[in-house]
Amino acid sequence: ACGGDSKDNADGLEGSVVIDGSGTVFPFMAKMGENYMGEQENVSVEVSRAGTSAGFKKFLVENGTDFNNASRSIKDEEKAEAEKQGIEVQELKVALDGITIVINKDNDWAKELTKQEIIDIFTASKGKKNWSDVRPDFPNEPIKTYGPNENHGTYEFFYEKILEEQALPEKINLQQDYSTLVDLVSKDKNAIGFFGFGYYDNNKDKLSAVNVDFGQGPVEPSLDTIKEDGDYAEFTRPVFTYLNVNHAKEKPQVLDYAIYTMENAQEVAKETGFAPLSDEDKQAALDALNGLKK
Amino acid sequence: MKYIDTTVVERKMGKRLLANKIARLVFLLATFFGTAVLAVLIYRVVSDSMGWIDKDFLLNKLSTDPERAGILGAIYGTLWLMAVVAPATMILGVGTAIYLEEYAKKGKFQSFIQTNISNLAGVPSVVFGILGLTIFARALGLGSVVLAGGLTMALLVLPVVVVASQEAIRAVPQFLREASYGMGATKWQTIKNVVLPAALPGILTGVILALSRAIGETAPLVVIGIPALLIPLPNGILDKFTVLPVQIYYWTVDSALTAEYANLAAATIVILLIVLFAMNSIAIIIRNKFQKRF
Amino acid sequence: MGITAGNINGTSAQGIGKKNIVYSTQDLNLWYGDGHALKSINLDIIENEVTAIIGPSGCGKSTYIKTLNRMVELVPTVRISGEILYRERNILDKEYKVEDLRTRVGMVFQKPNPFPKSIYENIAYGPKIHGIKNKKVLDEIVEQSLRGAAIWDEVKDRLHQNAYGLSGGQQQRLCIARCLAIEPDVILMDEPTSALDPISTLKVEELVQELKKDFSIIIVTHNMQQASRISDKTAFFLNGEVIEFAETSTIFSNPSDKRTEDYISGRFG
Amino acid sequence: MGITAGNINGTSAQGIGKKNIVYSTQDLNLWYGDGHALKSINLDIIENEVTAIIGPSGCGKSTYIKTLNRMVELVPTVRISGEILYRERNILDKEYKVEDLRTRVGMVFQKPNPFPKSIYENIAYGPKIHGIKNKKVLDEIVEQSLRGAAIWDEVKDRLHQNAYGLSGGQQQRLCIARCLAIEPDVILMDEPTSALDPISTLKVEELVQELKKDFSIIIVTHNMQQASRISDKTAFFLNGEVIEFAETSTIFSNPSDKRTEDYISGRFG
Amino acid sequence: MDRTTGEKRLDISGLIEKKKKTASVGTIAEKMIPGILFGIAAISVLTTIGIVLTLLTETVLFFKEVPFLDFFTGTKLKPLGKDAVFGVLPLLTGTLLSTAIAMAVAIPIGLMTAVFLSEYASEKLRKILKPMLEILAGIPTIVYGFFAFTFVTPLLRSFIPGLEPTNILSPGIVMGIMIIPMVASLSEDAMSAVPNAMREGALALGATKLEVTWKVVVPAAISGIIASFVLGISRAIGETMIVAIASGSSKNFTFDVTQSMQTMTAYIVEVTGGEAAAGTTLYYSLYAVAMTLFVFTLIMNLVAQYVSRRFREEY
Ligand SMILES: Nc1ncnc2c1ncn2[C@@H]1O[C@H](COP(=O)(O)OP(=O)(O)OP(=O)(O)O)[C@@H](O)[C@H]1O
Ligand SMILES: Nc1ncnc2c1ncn2[C@@H]1O[C@H](COP(=O)(O)OP(=O)(O)OP(=O)(O)O)[C@@H](O)[C@H]1O
Ligand SMILES: [Mg+2]
Ligand SMILES: [Mg+2]
Ligand SMILES: O=P([O-])([O-])[O-]
């Protein structure tokens, strides 16, 4: 669907595509939308970043958003809500992300940590107040923990899958905006935080990533290690966008955008700091989407 | 009675005069403090924007790529917003002023409206944002479009226009009204043909000041909800939009992720300040030109 | 409204001959709040005459003249009793539309009060609000009115300039012209020359003499000489009452009331 | 500063006897912008006398008296030439601190201008700024000053009430008391009674007579009777010039200048 | 009326008379206009009612879920997640601290500026300085936010080592700068209204300008000056963008100004930015906080009006 001839609207598409949800996926989707609009001049793609969970609330309502980006898969209660609302939802895995543990550039002691140490740091009950509580040779200074707030899929993934639902420290600094997080960690020597790889990748000059020892020695998060079967697999998670199928059927531009996204997902993923999904996953998604065409 | 010893008074005089001199200097410095901050602020903003303001910046649409990003969308959004705010505040503000000055009987009701208006002037702009969000965006189902934002903004700046118009109307000498009534003109004819034309410069000054306030307001629009990435240009009052200050907000917040966004924010600030400065100059020119006419 | 016609002769102290009565004021009382400004006024105004109203400051001259076109009602605290018959209809009647009244009764104020518009627009204002839109007709009205106010020659080349550029005397004649443009029946003038220099004053006085051929004129003045020069009848007000109302010559040569005599001879006021 | 002492007799028209000169004004000229308000004034003020300054409105009386404590400098456009010797020092000298001068020379204004504070605070203001902090001493100063201004009995029970609760005449005497509280050498009064009723005026006049025992007083007045009642010397100003300066009795009974005579006999002004 | 002046004349009154018969439409408009204007004037009242009602209805729902006392005495605010807690004290301390800092800057500098302009400055200098202040007053708050975040905070951090990258100190100071013109111009108005006679009275006693200012002019203008402070406080409480950008969103309950804190206004921006879905406690909390904010500023405005009305009656 190439809208070269803008006057001929039978060929070109028009209307809007409204996307909200994950802040992690935001850079990916923003880039995608921008590229798409370069080709389809009469379609307006709006991308926001309320966070995965907040995004689902706006997605699963009448006249809700067309897509919801998510850095975790849809929950059962959200599925139930979709059913109640009569919204058919198509999950589209768009890329892979690695939860990256970031520290301040000036932090020269915690460049490598074991997975357990990381869990301990972020678990309230373990009571790690100072860096020296983690390892005796670390400085005797307070640990400052940071992360995205509960609106975010990243938080939920971290809390559910990595911490196994143990409470986070009381004093953890949870933020709505990833940019704020980056800023905070980059300016706080004792900081340690977590978020998606992309935000680290874009800010390598401001932040350091912790190389995580999952048992076989420290692994640096990178587009090579972040794979479903890679060395960083334990902290790797797929990221998604969820499509409102009802909308896709009503509005050709929505379906067209979905197809466009899947066709270009691998390429845009690399540009925005995500590991690309496999060719099989891509093809499966495209097949499903093409099936929605009349 | 000999309590005042002139030699003592003279001796102390030196100290008192010194205190006066020092105080004068301190007051002078305090007065210049504001000016100095203004200078630093402008210097910072201009130097941060150096090299970023060019034709492309003004004429390009928004982009995630700082090199390609432009503020045309925000300019369009600002213009459309004004297209709602200007007539709405004019009608509401001038209408209210006419009612209060020409029709309302002096008394409890009139002073009630008057008090109400001065209280409205003190209501924080976020609260207006909530009003707009609840009433215009949600209850009326407009969504976060120009019309919703514009109406919210119109209510926000209403007191400015009302007060300025009231002053302008009050300044129209009674003898002009008498002359018109004496010709058999009705009240409305008198207001329309004599009072309003004579009060027009004052009213215009107020309206311009109100608009310049509206152009710079951010909070109510953020509360109503403006997408973080909105590339298409708004083409009417029912389109979603962004405006210069909101763009500054997002770029400032995101500058932690992409440093160049700070430059874009600074460049946008320069443009915004130029616009505001021009508007205020026009207001001052009108005010001076028509000051003492009767 | 024929009912009241019979009263006219009865209530007025003056003989009228066979001339038409324009205004007949009958037992008029007026209060500003608690201040009793006009007390039982009875006064008949005759067609095509100049009636002067004189009296010391604060005696109610302006109040009375402003009652004749109900302009006094702009003061919110005003209360009025009695009747004023204009052409045999009571203008104090709620039914009577003030706008109609004021279209028939023009007014010239103490301080010249042109609108901050062009000379042309000042004159055209009245006809326009009364619905005359035709440019040709308006042009004609403007010329005719300015001629009528003896100012045409002075302004004919600058009709579209702002009226504030005129001298005080010219402005006052412009205001008179503005009045003429709706061709009133009566013209009320409240000290029309008190803000003017002697030469301008003279011009206005001449104009008044000219105008009385076509209009009935009621003029308030502080200037005794002026009253005696231009008016046919004179009413002397004091403390809200009409002390004496008679032919101007009578009032000035042979007043019947001591107070009138004191006033016109300059003993107070 | 002894240099100028020799001039005094030369420049003044009046004989001085052996009395001390407080102020000696020598060839004083003053301009407001381009307006020449004082022209070559020469005038000597004698200790413990009341000197009245009279003259028609705008002749420069206030200007002159305000020059004596350099209050006139508050007008930004003022330019002054000449000399005013106060106790033999030239007060127009840049070196001379106005604050010192004003501590020695009190001033009472036309309109009473108490501070919006309590009566007590009004009086205590001067002593306080001059460094007197002791409550006892202040109390005593307040009482003495109020007694000195003949108002103590009227206000002693309400010292801590706002001065604005006093009548105009009381306020003016309060201002005089405020002046006394800094124990000045000279008191300048610019039409101190013109805003007061006759009874208050009388009281202030009596007070002035009382005060001259301790102070030298210069008083501007419009009221010829007042000048003749209370002053020892009188200066008649006209158009910024001193036309005549002499014993009050001489000025009022036997003026040497025609214009003085015209003025005091009410022929103009 | 047939006038007999010889030359042909236009019968204007006849024309007018004729028009009048067809002009009844105008009279209807004439009758409707007061009503229409009344309706327009009522909109400002409706706006207030609208604000109060929207805030109130949702606030009531909020207090059905979160007890009133818990909200106003709770020191913990954690609006998200399963264990959400709604205590408003962290926001209140954030708001009060930022306001206090702002006023600590704005009151002395604003007042001194006012004194300088009204008592010391020559007419010429005033003519230059006042427009400067007006410009300062006209700068949008988002610009101040940018300034606080990109300039003032880094500057402060270079000599306050413990200062967090987002903190309440820097936006507080910048907010103060923003409020200086308001305090200055309102206080100056109050001081200029003090009659000159009072200054002269004091000067004639040998007072220096400083003594006149401090002991006569300022006390006489005090209610106007206080009103300007109160309005400044109200403005600081309601200021949003500066804190939203520069003070972070930590919901700390602390009095340490070097820490990141959140104000009521910034909370509103954060929660609406995350777009709380209608019907959740989080969503209602938005209104409860906004209501608190509204009440605070309303009280301040009423106080300011009361104080300045008293001041006008003084002389
Ligand atoms: N708007 C008003 N409200 C209250 N009292 C008024 C008002 N206008 C006039 N008066 C009072 O009514 C009385 C008559 O006033 P009016 O203006 O009619 O006097 P006048 O004869 O025209 O005096 P002048 O020669 O000074 O114009 C006066 O006592 C005046 O104080
Ligand atoms: N501040 C000023 N600026 C310019 N001219 C002034 C100023 N004050 C006074 N004048 C002019 O100086 C002249 C003398 O004024 P001054 O006030 O001394 O007169 P006065 O004798 O006190 O009159 P009055 O009896 O009316 O008080 C007048 O022509 C006056 O217009
Ligand atoms: Mg009058
Ligand atoms: Mg004087
Ligand atoms: O913003 P999230 O990707 O963490 O939901």
UniProtKB/TrEMBL annotation, chain B:
Keyword terms of this UniProt record: Cell membrane, Membrane, Transmembrane, Transmembrane helix, Transport
Signal peptide: none
TM region positions: 22-46, 79-100, 120-140, 146-169, 190-211, 261-286
Membrane topology (UniProt): Multi-pass membrane protein
Source taxonomy: Bacteria, Bacillati, Bacillota, Bacilli, Bacillales
A GO MF term: phosphate transmembrane transporter activity
Protein name from the UniProt record: Phosphate transport system permease protein PstA
Keyword match Secreted: no
Gene Ontology terms: cellular component: plasma membrane
Record's keyword annotation contains Membrane: yes
Biological processes, Gene Ontology terms: phosphate ion transmembrane transport
Subcellular location: Cell membrane
Family to which the UniProt record says this protein belongs: Belongs to the binding-protein-dependent transport system permease family. CysTW subfamily.
InterPro entries the record matches: MetI-like, MetI-like_sf, Phosphate_PstA
Automatic annotation (TrEMBL), chains C, D:
A Pfam entry, by short name: ABC_tran
Every ABC transporter domain range: 16-264
Cited InterPro entries: AAA+_ATPase, ABC_transporter-like_ATP-bd, ABC_transporter-like_CS, P-loop_NTPase, PstB-like
PANTHER family attached to this UniProt entry: ABC TRANSPORTER I FAMILY MEMBER 17 (PTHR43423)
Keyword terms, alphabetized: ATP-binding, Cell membrane, Membrane, Nucleotide-binding, Phosphate transport, Translocase, Transport
An example Gene Ontology biological process: phosphate ion transmembrane transport
The protein's name in its UniProt record: Phosphate ABC transporter ATP-binding protein
GO cellular component: plasma membrane
Localization annotation: Cell inner membrane
Superkingdom in the source lineage: Bacteria
Membrane topology, record value: Peripheral membrane protein
Described purpose of this protein according to its UniProt entry: Part of the ABC transporter complex PstSACB involved in phosphate import. Responsible for energy coupling to the transport system.
Cell membrane recorded as keyword: yes
Gene3D superfamilies xref list: P-loop containing nucleotide triphosphate hydrolases
GO molecular function, one term: ATP binding
Automatic annotation (TrEMBL), chain E:
Pfam families: BPD_transp_1
Transmembrane segments: 36-56, 96-121, 133-156, 168-191, 212-233, 282-304
One GO BP annotation of this record: phosphate ion transport
Predominant location: membrane
Subcellular location: Cell membrane; Membrane
Domain of life (superkingdom): Bacteria
One Gene Ontology term of the molecular function aspect: phosphate transmembrane transporter activity
Domain (ABC transmembrane type-1): residue spans on this chain: 92-304
PROSITE patterns linked to this entry: ABC_TM1 (PS50928)
GO cellular component assignments: plasma membrane
Membrane topology, as annotated: Multi-pass membrane protein
Xref: InterPro entries: MetI-like (IPR000515), MetI-like_sf (IPR035906), Phosphate_PstC (IPR011864)
Protein keywords: Cell membrane, Membrane, Phosphate transport, Transmembrane, Transmembrane helix, Transport
Coiled coil: none
Protein role: Part of the binding-protein-dependent transport system for phosphate; probably responsible for the translocation of the substrate across the membrane.
PANTHER family hit by this protein: PHOSPHATE TRANSPORT SYSTEM PERMEASE, PHOSPHATE TRANSPORT SYSTEM PERMEASE PROTEIN
Family of the protein in this entry: Belongs to the binding-protein-dependent transport system permease family. CysTW subfamily.
Protein name: Phosphate transport system permease protein
Name of encoding gene: pstC
